[in-house]
Amino acid sequence: MAVDEAGELVIFGGSDGAAGVYSLAESKVQQSFKVSGAITDAVWYGSQPVVSTSSGAIKVFGPKEITFSSHAGSANALAFHPCGEILASVGVDKSFTFYDLVEGKAVTQIFTDSCKRHPLFCTKAQANKMQHSLQLLSTPMGTSLQLVALTARSSYSMSKPERALRIST
Question: Which domains does the chain have, with CATH numbers?
Answer without folding.
Answer: 2-168 (2.130.10.10)
